[in-house]
Design a protein that fits this description.
- The chain is an alpha+beta fold and 1873 residues long.
- Helices cover 38% and strands 14% of the residues.
- The strands form 14 sheets. Strands 26-25-24-23-29-28-27 form a 7-stranded antiparallel sheet, with helices on one face. It has a 7-stranded antiparallel sheet with strand order 46-45-44-43-49-48-47, covered by helices on one side. Strands 4-3-2-7-6-5 form a 6-stranded antiparallel sheet.
- A hairpin with a 5-residue loop joins β39 (1715-1719) and β40.
- α5 packs across α7, α26 runs parallel beside α29 and α38 packs across α39.
- It is elongated, with a radius of gyration of 51 Å.
- The termini are far apart.
Length: 1873
């Protein structure tokens, strides 16, 4: 029973110091005046009666009522029901009071009299203070008191109040009590059935109506995660209700922080408290709450919740959040479900507000049941007597729920509310309520209901019914009868003030009642305690995935097998399974399975293993622990803890090493929470055992009534003990308490030992803590609910230093002692260990640690003596001839990088990496060779290597998380990145000393960046002793040959003395140049001044007569690639006489033969015929690096020339583009130069035949003949139906190139095909850099036009390449490799640059093809210029698409024209800072893109391009070294490539090597080669058409890069040749598994043609013949196939053509090749290949007639005709006179434009060529005369002679017409060249 009201108080207004109407509350009377013993009077009530402050009012307000809540120091809540009414105040009394105050203050100044209203009213409050929350009863009681006063009823107020104070009611039990206060009133009070459930009336429903579902959920989560919450409302009662509602929602958790539903104005500073709170404040003070930055404000009147930016509220985990929202909307808005129905039910049964309130609470009750499901299984009972001490295992609970990563639940579990929940609901024997039943019995039901809304709603209603019943046990309540005041009574004018009550009367009533109570018998409350049901364990509730289980069952089987193999000593089998087991450890089930299996092999707490077994077990344990978090939520570390102290090995007699010394490197061991949970778990088990023993003794006695308790859970045992406790004798009680305390104490000693095992490292001398990061902050991580201050205070008494941080200097032992002390203090304080025992423990711990250290020292000493584990033998790599080893193998592990293929992983395939082996450093390469650590692929050999010269970055890396069990931690790791797209990520073995690693790095650096280019491998190869090379005495280098000596001498004499003392010219590094942003500054004065000092006499035309000393030079220059190409193109020859016809537009100039004009140009240059050499010298100054415009190629059809130069210097630009009409201010140097420059360009224009044809007029449309208009090119294969229209430029070329192509170009990246819109098209386009040509205006009178374009700089290429390498060869594995790859590829912008280069090149091709010449004048003329110029030639001229032609192109444009290979490749120490810029690689990538689109146009294969890419950076050959011909000449390289000594000389030139290799094998040959005559290619350049080159992404781990042919071919094929099979035995299978990144696919599965050629060679060898060359076989085959096709009648309707139609892929319409291989039944294989052919177009022309004009350039293979070879430009029969008196004979002659040959055969069908006349050697063709033996009956005019440099050939045709045709064709060939 409890008092209904403890105190009755009358509080009145007391005026303040100032007369401004503000006063304060004053308690007039309180009853009883003495405090109750059990309940002192709460202080500060007067503040809460008027929360907004005591103020006077001008009018009388109606009475108000609200309940404030006060919380005392014992967390008891007092409900203060305040009833307030207003009384008129006596003004004179007020003034007297004010005067008195003023006198006291002795104020001198006049006081302004307060405003005098007619009448003032002061508030007066009647307050009831109670510990019970019966709001309505309080309202009625105080209302009755007021009614008696205001209406003047006869009843005595004292009696009513006395009765009120003496009224007692039961607290709970669902009883009904009628009370009367003696004024004829009657009230019925219902007590709740269970007082643990909150009483909410309608407050929860109202809160949801005010704020809405989302807002209330937000507040709910905020309250649970301990945020500050502030309610605002203008109604005090609403504030109280809202706060009460929020607390009701939190049930079964209880809010334990500041809770003030109504906060008075005077206490507003409480809002700044740092602790969480739930507070209500009147909205009048809203402005004061604005500056609160960390408070969530809920405005009840406005319905809003404001969350500050700095606060993050963790919401419920999904799917719970969604389910809760759904359930709430079903309850609050039942109409929502049926809103869309066509026939909604006529009535919706909406619940009453009170019922809705309970339904909402039922939803939250279910939510908590979900959240805390199975919590009782994670309780640790560490003491039962005298009071149960219970702890909660958070980590295990979260782990079993799978919510470790969740944001919300961990915060709730760490909160104070949950701590209270465990204390309150943890005990196993207590009264239960609805929540306990819900958790225990309804779990399965709730899980089953989840899918069905109807069933969920049904359950909610059932729970709501229970909650409603608890509050209202008696539905049919008799009516209350309480008098109310008459209407408007508060407005009466002459109302007497509230009377002063008689204290005596009331006190007497109270005393009487108290005396009566004392004599009354005590009320016996029936205890309803019982054992709390636990409910189903968590495991049965968590949803399981069938697929995962099936998958893991197989894994678990592997784990079990491996462990049984280990213990059965079947080590080989175990070794094979080990990697699979280690990989399986990622799964939690496998980790738990491992602990269970290992546990089976422990007998009597000990398991002695041999060394190998021990090693395996430790590795498995480590792997198992490495995936556990520090909290160990799945209990894996807990299960391993007893095992690590059980498994051991004998090191020597008396010395045993336990597994714990090898598994210390895991964070879990330094986590205090882990140790606490482990300790409590073990204590619980021992306590359980303690009581089970006792139970067994009494088992027989109790069997009947109790039943067996042996298998009972600890909770059941504890419940039983708690029940029996009161019945035990005090002795028995003391005995049990002492037993429990001893159990805890012994466990504490045990754990002090355990912790020292796992915290002290094996080598304690190193003063290094294992993973010490966790130990320092031990305080911050605690698993207990006792605040740290208690544990801390006990700790401080024994441990003077407060923390670890300040003890850094002390050794490991001190650290460990402190850590264990802290742990022991904490757990012993919590589990009630006596102080004596605790002190004893503190004395013991240092001894335990010291003892353990001594044991460890012996173990450490012995373990050092163990024989090392057998490591695999080092495999030595094979070396190239001349390659020498610099550093012998250092044992390393090759670790996986981001490329997935080699590491197995999600891609599948064997895990080749990590591999164990050695890294070797040679003069040429860095090589790793070893075997995979995974035994399943252990027999494979892994090789990864790259040339030292290609190293771009070498860095030390820190070990990430242990990559693999095989790789030791803490070893040095290096990452070496190469520009051949290779990465060596190596971890050195422990045996490799750090000094060796440093020596390795130094050697590597030295080899990568040699002092001088002559120290690179290409020069030193084969020299066993390297001569020290003095850079100063370069002229005296003994390796220079006489020729270059002479040449350099002459050059030096010509230039003057200044170059002798100056170092070799190296162009300034890129960064120091102006770049493309501004015109080139005059920082190259060196160049300009030199060219000005040149002796003029050497530059006059007289120099054309070459002095005898230069004869040798000239002959060598003529042999260079440039010169050979100039002759082929018909750009001029250098015959001995040097006489030439003036009508040839160009000539070869020898002006630069001494490299005096331009150091980076070749010795011979093509310039316009009319330009004198001395003019050239002046023009060259206008261009960067003196690289003036020279012709490098001429279109044989349109005669348009392609020129290249460096960008213009600043001073050249203005002069060049000045209008010639403006008079010059005076003849200046710059002026004359620009005029000469203009003259030079005009001379180029004049060289174009169509310009001359129209009499030097404008290049207008009429000037073009139809021949010039027809373009013989292909845009991919979009062919024009009528060939007369041309791919013309229908818009400004400049705007197209400047990046505006999107406006007019069609989407495939090709120019649009349209009519020639532009009437005036320039004869010469100058393509220059936009930034350099800014501000230049086009001049309509000029014959040239400037096209400004934006190009990227070399440094952008460098950056882009770096990113490309990181994309293709990432250093670290990423979570989503494919996404990361594509993202980084895009960011690199490499393909964008390729697109730009191709786009510019295609447009230049287009210009040349329509008859305009083009000058490419970008940057310094040696990077992008070279790329564009080379690509233009490759696209325009089929010759460059042959092997020979491509070599010529690279030699001419890249080597002779001075691309700076050394500088861009950072080949020496000087270039180290510049970094690697792959301009040449970018060009090769462009060629690869074109090759992909036109596979039939190239004689060489993709492999050839990769080969060149690799060796352009490998420094194996001298070809790609140095920056220009001049430098090569200086080093004597230029003319040494031919005719060196015979014998096994290493190859100096890459071309020589390719040539030799090409004779042996078709590796570089493209079988699909079937070119079309004079084919111009126009590739698509859009990004969607570009592919990433597989050179960047593929690798061959079986042999390393396949570009060093001797090394790659070294390994024999693994397929053994089977002996002769037995008669009956089936033929053995020759199948092989091919791994994508391991095998060389090209060799393992060659294409059909290579395979047939190989077989042919093998057959020839078997027959004893000398095997023929593959090329000859191939040519024969082609000729045979061609002849066969001709015999078929040329219809081309064979199988091959049909096959080709199918394979041509009309969607992309590129030319492709189909090969038809037919297996005949007999077993012989017949090959029918269509290898070349002409295609005719079937596209209908615009006229609509079928047929159309035949075009040899179409690629629509609808009529594929293999009749006419594309290498035969013209063929027929000619009579030829044999040499030396041989007769005339008819021969079949073939004129081949592509190869520039005239071949002859015996007959048309003959495939063997009888002779070849090289057209390059032809000097003239003249009419001939018949000689002896000539054919009769032939006209004399049918004879003609061809004169070559070697001899004269006599020919005779069948008639004059044919003879004329042959002469014309041969002449045409010569002029085309």
């Amino acid at each position: 029973m409890a008092r209904l009201a403890d105190y009755f108080v009358v509080v009145a207004f007391s005026p303040g110091k100032r007369g401004n109407g503000d006063g304060q509350g004053q308690i007039l009377q309180r009853f009883p005046e003495k405090d109750w013993e059990d309940n002192p009077f709460p202080q500060g009530i007067e503040l809460f009666c008027q929360p907004s402050g005591w103020q006077l009012f001008r009018e009388r307000n109606p009475p108000t009522f609200f309940i404030a809540v006060l919380t005392d120091i014992n967390s008891e809540r007092h409900y203060c029901a305040c009833f307030t009414f207003w009384e008129a105040i006596d003004r004179s009394q007020l003034q007297n009071r004010l005067r008195k105050d003023e006198e006291e203050e002795e104020e001198e100044e006049e006081v302004a009299a307060p405003v005098q209203p007619a009448q003032l009213f002061a508030p007066k409050s009647l307050v009831l203070v109670s510990r019970l929350d019966h709001a309505e009863v309080f309202r009625n009681c105080l209302g009755l008191v007021y009614t008696i006063y205001v209406d003047g009823l006869s009843t005595s107020l004292e009696t009513v109040i006395g009765n009120l104070l003496t009224c007692t009611i039961p607290i709970m039990g669902g009883s009904q009590r009628t009370i009367s206060l003696g004024a004829g009133d009657r009230q019925v009070i219902q007590t709740p059935i269970n007082d643990s459930l909150p009483i909410s009336n309608c407050s929860v429903a109202l809160l949801f109506r005010q704020l809405g579902i989302t807002n209330v959920l937000c507040l709910f989560c905020a309250a649970l995660t301990e945020h500050k919450i502030l309610f605002l409302s203008s109604s005090y009662q609403r504030l109280t209700d809202a706060c009460r509602a929020l607390l009701a929602l939190m049930f079964p958790l209880k809010y334990s922080f500041t809770y003030v539903p109504i906060l008075p104005a005077q206490l507003l500073e409480v809002l700044s408290t740092p602790t969480p709170f739930i507070i209500g404040v009147s909205s009048a003070f809203q402005s004061e709450t604005q500056e609160l930055l960390d408070v969530i404000i809920a405005d009840l009147d406005g319905g809003t919740v404001t969350v500050p930016e700095c606060i993050h509220i963790s919401l419920l985990p999904e799917p719970l959040l969604h389910r809760t929202r759904e359930a709430l909307s079903m309850v609050l808005d039942p109409g929502l479900e049926i809103a869309d129905l066509a026939f909604p039910p006529s009535t919706i049964s909406a619940s009453s507000l009170k019922m809705q309130d309970k339904e909402i609470r039922a939803v939250f009750l279910r939510l908590f049941a979900h959240l805390l499901q199975g919590y009782r299984w994670c309780l640790h009972i560490i003491r039962i007597h005298p009071e149960p001490v219970i702890r909660f295992h958070k980590a295990a609970f979260l782990g079993q729920r799978g919510l470790v990563e969740d944001d919300f639940l961990p915060k709730v579990l760490e909160g104070m509310a949950f701590a209270g929940f465990v204390t309150e609901r943890g005990p196993p024997y207590r009264e239960t309520d609805v929540f306990d039943e819900l958790v225990a019995n309804e779990a399965q039901r709730m899980q089953a209901d989840e899918g069905s809304k109807v069933r969920v709603l049904q359950h909610i209603k059932e729970l709501a019914e229970q909650l409603y019943k608890n509050e209202n046990p008696y539905p049919a309540v008799t009516m209350h009868k309480v008098q109310r005041p008459t209407e408007g009574s508060h407005l009466r004018l002459h109302q007497r003030p509230f009377p002063r009550l008689d204290e005596g009367t009331i006190q007497w009533i109270v005393d009487q009642a108290t005396a009566k109570l004392q004599t009354a018998p005590p009320v016996v409350r029936a205890e309803r305690k019982c054992m709390v049901p636990s409910g189903p364990p968590l495991g049965t509730l968590m949803e399981r995935n069938g697929l995962v289980l099936a998958n893991s069952a197989r894994r678990l089987e592997v784990v079990r097998n491996c462990i049984s193999y280990v213990f059965e000593s079947k080590m080989l089998e175990a070794k094979r399974l080990l990697p699979a087991v280690l990989r399986a450890m990622k799964s939690r089930l496998a980790r738990q399975c491992l602990t269970q299996e290992l546990n089976l092999h422990v007998q009597q707490n000990r398991a002695v293993l041999d060394h190998l077994q021990f090693d395996f077990v430790v590795r498995m344990m480590n792997c198992c622990l490495q995936d556990c978090s520090a909290a160990d939520e799945h209990g894996v570390a807990a299960a391993l803890l007893p095992l690590v102290t059980a498994f051991c090995r004998k090191l020597s007699p008396g010395i045993t090493q336990f597994a714990y010394s090898c598994v210390q490197e895991h964070l879990v061991w330094t986590n205090l929470q882990f140790w606490e949970a482990m300790f409590y778990g073990d204590v619980q088990n021992h306590i359980r055992a303690l009581y089970l023993e006792g139970t067994e003794e009494n088992h027989l006695a109790q069997a009947g009534e109790e039943g067996s308790q042996e298998d009972g859970s600890i909770l059941e045992i504890a419940a039983l003990q708690c029940r029996l406790w009161p019945t035990m004798s005090p002795e028995k009680q003391r005995e049990l308490i002492q037993k429990e305390e001893s159990t805890v104490f012994s466990q504490a000693i045990h754990y002090a030992n355990r912790m020292s095992y796992l915290l002290l490292p094996l080598d304690t001398s190193k003063n290094r803590l294992p993973r010490s990061s966790g130990l320092g902050d031990a305080e911050s991580v605690s698993n207990s609910f006792i605040t740290n201050s208690i544990a801390g205070s006990v700790a401080d008494s024994y441990d003077t230093e407060s923390g670890f941080e300040d003890a850094e200097t002390s050794d490991v032992a001190n650290y460990v002692v402190r850590f264990i002390n802290r742990f022991v203090d904490k757990v012993c304080t919590e589990s009630g260990v006596t102080n004596e025992h605790l002190k004893g423990l503190h004395v013991m711990i240092p001894d335990i640690v010291q003892m353990h250290i001594e044991t460890l020292d012996a173990v450490h000493r012995e373990s050092k003596r163990l024989p090392p584990i057998q490591k695999p033998k080092l495999l030595r790599p094979s070396l190239l001839m001349g390659e020498e080893s610099v550093m012998d193998g250092l044992r390393v592990f090759l670790m996986p990088d981001g490329r997935e293929e080699g590491a197995g992983g999600s891609v599948g395939g064997p895990p080749l990496l990590p591999a164990e082996g050695a890294v070797f450093l040679t003069t040429y390469r860095i090589v790793f060779k070893g075997t995979p650590v995974d035994p399943l692929v252990g027999e494979q050999v892994v090789v990864r290597s790259f040339p030292v010269a290609s190293l771009t970055k070498e860095e030390k890396i820190t070990a990430q998380a242990p990559v693999d069990q095989f790789i030791p931690e803490g070893c040095a790791q290096l990452q070496l990145r190469s520009c051949t797209f290779q990465l060596l990520r190596i971890a050195f073995d422990e045996e490799v000393a750090s000094e060796s690693v440093e020596i390795f790095r130094k050697h590597l650096q030295k080899l990568r960046y040699p002092q001088h280019i002559a120290d690179t491998f290409a020069f030193t190869v084969g020299q066993s002793i390297k001569p020290a090379l003095q850079p100063k005495a370069k002229e005296k280098n003994p390796s220079l040959r006489t020729i270059s000596k002479n040449l350099v001498k002459n050059a030096k004499r010509t230039i003057g003395r200044q170059y002798i003392t100056r170092k070799k010219y190296t162009p300034p590094p890129w960064e120091h140049r102006g770049g493309s942003q501004q015109p080139f500054p005059e920082d190259n004065e060196d160049e300009i001044s030199v060219s000005e000092e040149v002796d003029r006499s050497t530059l006059t035309p007289a120099t054309l007569t070459i002095r005898p000393s230069d004869k040798m030079t000239m002959s060598n220059l003529v042999e260079r690639a440039c010169c050979r190409d100039y002759q082929r193109l018909g750009l001029g020859t250098l015959s001995n006489s040097l006489t030439r016809s003036k009508n040839e537009p160009f000539r070869i100039s020898t002006v630069n033969r001494m490299y005096a004009i331009c150091r980076s140009y070749p010795g011979l240059l093509i310039v316009p015929q009319t330009i004198q050499d001395n003019t050239i010298q002046r023009i060259s100054r206008c261009y960067r690096q003196n690289r003036f415009p020279v012709v490098c190629w001429r279109n044989s059809r349109t005669k348009a020339a392609l020129l290249r130069s460096g960008g213009l210097h600043g001073k050249g630009v203005a002069g060049l583009f000045k209008s010639p009409n403006t008079p010059a201010p005076g003849p200046s140097q710059a002026d004359s130069t620009s005029l000469e420059q203009e003259k030079y360009l005009q001379a180029v224009i004049n060289s174009m035949p169509h310009y001359v044809d129209v009499g030097g007029g404008r290049n207008t449309l009429s000037g073009f003949t139809s021949a010039h208009m027809s373009s013989s090119g292909k845009w991919g294969s979009i062919r024009a139906s009528g060939r007369t229209s041309s791919y013309a430029l229908n818009m400004e070329v400049g705007s197209r190139l400047a990046g505006k192509e999107l406006l007019g170009a069609p989407p495939n990246g090709s120019p649009s095909e349209a009519s020639f819109l532009r009437q005036h098209r320039a004869s010469l386009y100058i393509i220059g850099d936009k930034s350099q040509l800014r501000g230049v205006k086009p001049d309509p009178l000029q014959h040239w036009e400037v096209v400004p374009i934006e190009v990227f700089e070399a440094r952008q290429v460098k950056t882009s390449f770096k990113k490309l390498m990181k994309a293709c060869v990432p250093g670290n594995p990423s979570a989503e490799p494919s996404v990361a790859y594509l993202r980084s590829l895009e960011e690199s912008e490499w393909l964008t640059q390729i697109h730009k280069i191709l786009q510019i090149s295609v447009l230049v091709v287009e210009l040349l093809d329509t008859g305009s010449s083009v000058l490419v004048s970008l940057e310094d003329g040696w990077d992008i210029t070279t790329q564009v110029v080379s690509l233009v030639q490759l696209l325009s001229d089929p010759y460059y698409r042959t092997l020979e032609g491509f070599r010529l192109l690279v030699e001419k444009e890249w080597l002779s024209f001075g691309h700076r290979f050394s500088h861009r490749g950072a080949q020496t120490l000087a270039g180290q800072g510049g970094g690697f810029t792959p301009i040449f690689l970018q060009f090769l990538d462009c060629v690869h893109q074109i090759h992909l689109q036109f596979p039939m146009e190239f004689e060489f294969s993709q492999y050839y391009l990769k080969f060149l890419s690799y060796h352009s950076v490998s420094n194996r050959f001298r070809t790609f070294l140095l920056d220009c011909d001049y430098e090569r000449l200086e080093l004597g390289l230029l003319y040494e490539e031919k005719g060196e000594g015979k014998g096994p000389q290493p190859f100096r030139s890459v071309w020589e090597y390719v040539e030799r290799l090409n004779k042996k094998t078709p590796a570089f040959f493209n079988y699909m080669y079937a070119p079309e005559d004079s084919e111009v290619l126009r590739p698509y350049s859009n990004l969607s058409n570009l592919k990433v080159w597989d050179y960047y992404t593929q690798e061959t781990l079986s042999e390393g890069p396949s570009y060093d042919w001797e090394l790659a071919q070294g390994r024999p094929e693994p397929v053994e040749d089977p002996g002769p099979p037995d008669a009956g035995a089936p033929a053995p299978s020759r199948r092989r598994i091919v791994w994508p990144c391991y095998d060389n696919r090209r060799r393992v599965e060659p294409d059909a043609i290579s395979r047939l050629l190989e077989e042919l060679q093998n057959l020839e060898m078997e027959l004893g013949q000398v095997p023929g060359r593959w090329k000859e076989t191939w040519d024969k085959l082609k000729a045979f196939q061609r002849a066969e096709a001709q015999e078929d009648g040329g219809g081309g309707k064979g199988v091959s053509s049909a096959l080709l139609m199918a394979s041509s892929g009309l969607s992309h319409q590129r030319r492709s090749l189909g090969a038809y291989l037919q297996e005949s039944g007999v077993g012989s294989s017949a090959i029918n290949l269509s290898l070349d052919g002409d295609a005719s177009s079937t596209s209908t022309p615009s006229s609509g007639k079928p047929g159309g004009r035949r075009s040899n350039t179409s690629t629509l293979y609808s009529q594929f005709q293999p009749a006419e070879s594309e290498n035969r430009s013209y063929e027929g029969i000619l009579y030829k006179k044999g040499a030396f008196m041989k007769p005339w004979k008819p021969r079949w002659f073939v004129l081949d434009k592509t190869k520039h040959q005239l071949r002859y055969y015996d007959s048309r069908l003959d495939t063997e060529c009888k002779g070849v006349i090289d057209l390059a050697e032809v000097e003239s063709i003249t009419p001939g005369t018949p000689t002896m033996g000539a054919p009769k009956m032939v006209d004399e005019k049918a004879f003609f002679d061809v004169k070559t440099t070697k001899r004269v050939y006599n020919f005779c045709a069948q008639d004059v017409l044919l003879a004329q045709q042959w002469i014309d064709r041969i002449q045409g060939c010569l002029s085309d060249a």
